[in-house]
Amino acid sequence: MFKKLACFTGWLAVLCLSLIFSFMLGLWQGWSTPGILLLWLLVMVLTALLWHSLPEILLLVRGKKGRRWFTKYRLSRREYVLFNHWKAGASVIKRIQRRRTHLPWYLLVGERGGKSTLLASAGLPRFYGDNADGTTAPTRTLRWWFFRDLCVLDLSSNFLNGAASFRQAWSKLARWCTHIPAPGGIIIALPMSQLMRGDLSQLHALARQQRSLIEPLVRHYGERLPLYVLVTQCDKFPGFSLWQHQLSDAQRQQALGYTWSVPPHIDGQDDTTLQPLFTRLHEGFSLVRLSMAHPATLSAPEYNALLDFPEAFARLEPALRYTLAALCEANAYFSPATLKSIWFCSAEPQVENQGRRTSYFIQDLLTRHLPALSLKRSGLRWYQRSFGKTCCYAAIGICALWLAISASMSAMRLRSGLAELAPDKLAAFVAADEQHATLALPWLPFMPLFNQQQREAETLLARIPVTARPARQTLEAYQQRALSASPAQQRHDILQLAAAVTRWRQMQHGTPLDTLAEAAPISDELTQNVYPSALSPLTRLALERYYIQRPYGERWLQNAQRVLENLVNHDLSLRWLQAPDAAFPPLHAATFWPALPDSLALDGKWTQAGEATVNQWMAEIEAAADRTEPIFQPLRESWQEARQQAWRQYLIDVTAHLSPDETGTASRRQLIAISQNQSPAMRFAARIVDELEAIPPEHAQPWLTTLRDVQTLARAGDGAALLQRTERLNKQLRLSLADWFQGKTQTAAAATAQSAQQAWLDWQKSRNSAVNAAVAQEKPGDTLTRGLFTPGQQKPDANPLGTLLPTLVTLQERVSPDEIDADVAAVWRLYQDDARALLANAMASSACWLNAQWKSSVIWPLGKNAEKRSYEEQQELSQQLVGNFLRGPAKPMLSVDNNGLRAAGFASMTLPFTAEFSQFLRNAFPADILQDLPQRTTTKIQDQKATLQAKVAALELQQSKLEKQVVKTTVTSLPATIAEGAQVIPTGTQLLLNCQKGDQLLSSMNFADKADFTWQPGQCHGVTLSVMFPDFVAVDQINGDDAWPWFVSLFSSGETLIDSHDFGDSAELLKRLGIKQILVRFAMSNTRPLEEAWQSWKTNADEISSLTQQISDLNEQSAYPQPDELAAHALSGLPDEITQCQ
Asked: Per the database entry, which stretches of residues form a coiled coil (predicted)?
């Protein structure tokens, strides 16, 4: 279960990583999302096909697939059984090899000496076949042992000393082993009993038998197949079992032996060959012997044997060395073999059950050492293998066949008698011969012969008499003629010379005549020679190529390049390059708006066709000059910016000519085009975006960026709802992945893009609704403008034209949230053209309908039975009809301003009234005619005036009551004096109160005189204070209704200082006398009733004054003509047409 889960997790990780890689590559290359997903699916499909077909391909390459079907019929019965046993394990190895990185397997050979018992008693889990822990039977043919990290193929001892049938079967088994991955090595089992016996002849015979058995595999794999010697039955050695019983369980599982890092040189006469092995064994045995001390369970003989065990075990070295020499020494009969390791192990009976055995010193060998050693192998060269040899022989045969075929075909291509051919036929032969590919395989071996034949033909052509031209004089004359021509002609001459230079260079490189003849011919004034007129163009071309390849032709080409450089660089402004040409005609605005003038056009060089043409011209010139022209570099660097500026100015000019307030009807086709984003404005915007598509976003100006954003929204909105949703999800996915790959977030940008898309959909919805309403209206009417001029009287969004421009403003705010400049404003004026066109169509339709209503409700009734009515009756009828018309159908289409009635408007566009009708409205009718009597302004003014007058009458009644009140105040005079001293002092004072009922006076000669003053509000208007001096009297006059209350409050403290300039005519005299202030004393009593009476009267008087002023203002407003009666007007002043109906 865990393996299945791990496999599933691994494949899922591979799928996710491959998908992420595909998106990274696709976003980097700018591919579309379907393209990225297609790439990912293609990679997955190819990987799966390759994964499943690789074993079959390998098997097919090795040439064994076809024969495996007939294996059963090509083998004997014993061989077929052997093949089935082998195939059972080989299929497991192949399957595991396909699923895992490495599974080594080893071949175990040797005499019958406990090999299978050793593997079966190792106590390791097996992963294939019978895993029962029972008594192991002898291996009769072969047996597969699958452990966790390796596999062992155990061969029966019958293959060593068996019958001839086993030897024949072994030859096939060795060949089968080469069909699966190479083994990690061969394990050769040597019984300990043979080594202890010490019979060198038997050991030699046994080693030779084993060496002969493994020779086919050693010869096939070479040094990649090392040998591992495994000494079995070590428990038969005296003291070995006793020694291993003293070890721990972990020590018994370790490998007992030695592995050479560098394979040793095996020499039977060299005593040091196995010295590393036995030295390490002796050291290990000695250390273990010391750690054992004196076990109490051992007897004395056993303890002595245990102590003598390391030295006794070393006595096996001569026999083992002799056996290895017979096994591994190189000779004339066997291939060199490599010894890698020697190990010792045993399988001893268990104490509890003598029928079972336990293997020792084999566990770590199978789990650690052998899997690690299998990774160190070397390989053969590719040409040493059978497949490589086959490829080499096949290549030699193919080359021989190729030479034979080439010789036969070359013989047919060679031609004799070239000197007898006419010049034109000779040139045609050269052209035909050059059609054969120079490096084509059929002609490649004999190319020197063909080259010699071509040189001979060209030499014969060169014998034709021609007249040579001087290079310098000819080309300088061409230069002078070109410099004196117009810019367009200069460009023609420069391009003609550049084409000639390019053609000459191609001739120098040996370009075939057919290729040269496809291009435009070289002008006669630029050829190197004057050729006879009888020669064909192909012959002239061949002669021109021949002479340009000579040293004189090289000088001619150099002079031509020098003249070309002079012509290109003579004008730094490059006027000749940018001169108008028929290849890029100007782009007229009338192409999109037929009503616009033809003079409104964009120079054709700023279009894509113009850019491509100019770039092609510069490329031709630079190809001829064989270098990049520095004079072109500034033009290239500024070209994109200049194109943007040109298109920007063109956009501003076009939008300036689009009248925002002209009305006119639109045809059904034009309305449908608007709904399909094919209106003139949309086509013009799409043309601009397409023309400037090559400009990268980082170099685009703000207006172009805005236009691209809106066009992107328009393209996204053209599809169906599902496609739109898919496109939005696709865009969000790509933005999210790009941000994730870059390690940043753009949530705000994604939200802005989504809101802009929604704003575009809202605007498109409003536009389509307006188009549908316009298309559905079959005849002129007021439905298209209904509620447009009085939006407050209609439900929200009742008229789609009312929401069209606001939604466009919302779209503008979403796409261009920053403050826009004039360029970006021109972009939005362009998109307003559709809304203006729909609004103009609605205005024109309503105008025509209103004009028809005028004729049917005013003109026609006046003309009917006109002879039966008097002039006065006609005039009265006209007033009634016009009033009904203005209050009826015309009312929603009229508005009021300071000048009176005028045509209603919306978004700076008004109904197209005629000038006569507009003048008629302003002069003949007041603004209130459109309103009913209760809603008229004059009615409201009269109501307000009546209310104010009633309030004034009430206040005046209350004021008369206040004026009848009598307030008495007692005034006591005290001496007046000069506070700072003076030459003249006052001699007395006099106080006079002026009232309507009479004056009241108090005179005092600076004594304490007393008098009572009676005051009534609104009845006393003045107070006179006189200060008497010996020779004159100073008088201070106080006037107004508040004179007495103010005077009483002034003397509330009993005295006050009066400045000398307050005394009027006496001020100058007082100044000359040095009197600045006069201290006047009056004591006032009973002043509180006076103050209360004055405040009540004053408040009432102020309110009356305010109401009176309001009444006066209302009187001024009501001074305009009253709308109760229509103004009389002449019948001849009635207009026949009131709107400009188109």
From this structure: 938-965
CA distances from 660 to 12, 114, 607, 663, 805 (A): 62, 108, 28, 9, 13
Q: Residue 724 pLDDT > 60, yes or no? A: no
Q: What is the bridge-based pairing of β-strands 900-903 and 894-897?
A: antiparallel
pLDDT tens, position by position, 55-82: 777 766 665 544 554 444 467 777 888 8
Cα dist from 785 to 673, 674, 770, 864, 892, whole Å: 21, 19, 11, 31, 9
Question: What integer pLDDT is reported at residue 106 of this predicted model?
Answer: 92
CB atoms near residue 908 (< 10 Å)? 9
Which SS3 state, helix, strand or coil, does residue 665 take?
Answer: coil
Q: What is the pLDDT of residue 565?
A: 92
Query: What are the tokens at 687?
Result: 């043309």
| Helix (H) or strand (E) run with residue 429 in it | helix 423-434
DSSP code per residue over 914-958 = -HHHHHHHHHH--GGGGS-GGGSHHHHHHHHHHHHHHHHHHHHHH
Q: What is the mean pLDDT of the chain?
A: 81
pLDDT at 955: 76
Contact (CB, 8 A) for 909 and 661: yes
- pLDDT, one tens digit per residue, over 156-198 is 888 887 677 787 888 888 888 888 888 889 999 999 988 888 8
pLDDT at site 468: 84
User: CA-to-CA distance for 152 and 103, rounded, in angstroms?
Assistant: 11
Instruction: Return the CATH number of the domain spanning residue range 78-263+326-374.
Output: 3.40.50
Between 354 and 705, the higher pLDDT residue: 705
CA distance 546 to 456: 12
Q: What is the 3-state secondary structure (H, E, C) of 1052-1068?
A: CCCEEEEEHHHHHHHHH
Provide the 3-class DSSP secondary structure of residue 435.
Answer: coil
Q: What one-letter code names the amino acid at 264?
A: P
pLDDT of residue 120: 85
CATH class, range 951-1114? mainly beta
Which long-range contacts (C-beta less than 8 Å, at least 24 apart) are formed by 940-948? Answer: 941/1114, 941/1117, 941/1118, 942/1118, 944/1110, 944/1114, 945/1111, 945/1114, 945/1115, 945/1118, 948/1107, 948/1110, 948/1111, 948/1114
Contact, 837 vs 679, CB < 8 A?
yes
The predicted structure's pLDDT at residue 935: 56
Q: Is the dihedral of CA 330, 335, 339, 343 positive or negative?
A: negative
C-alpha–C-alpha distance, residues 812 and 755, integer Å: 11
CA–CA dist 143, 373 (Å, integer): 22
Whole-angstrom distance, CA of residue 173 vs CA of residue 86: 8
Q: H/E element holding 602?
A: strand 601-602
Q: Predicted confidence band at 1120 (pLDDT cuts at 50, 70, 90)?
A: very low
Question: Using N-to-C axis directions, what is the helix angle for 668-675 and 822-854, rounded to 10°?
Answer: 140
- List pLDDT tens digits, range 293-326: 666 667 777 777 777 888 888 888 889 888 888 8
Residue 986 confidence class, pLDDT cut points 50, 70, 90: confident
Q: What share of the chain is helix, strand, coil (3-state, %, to 5)?
A: 60, 10, 30
Domain ranges in the chain?
2-61, 78-263+326-374, 386-461, 580-657, 666-840, 951-1114
pTM of whole model > 0.85?
Answer: no
Q: Which two tokens stand for residue 1053?
A: 């403290």
What's 1086's DSSP letter?
S
Q: Environment class of residue 858 by beta-carbon count within 10 Å: exposed (0-12), middle (13-18) or buried (19+)?
A: buried
Query: What 3-state class would DSSP assign to 66?
Result: coil
- Distance of alpha carbon 517 from alpha carbon 511, whole angstroms: 10
pLDDT at 446: 67
Record the tokens describing residue 272, joined without a space.
């040091």
**CA 321 to CA 304: how far, in whole Å?**
28
Q: Which two tokens stand for residue 537?
A: 């163009």
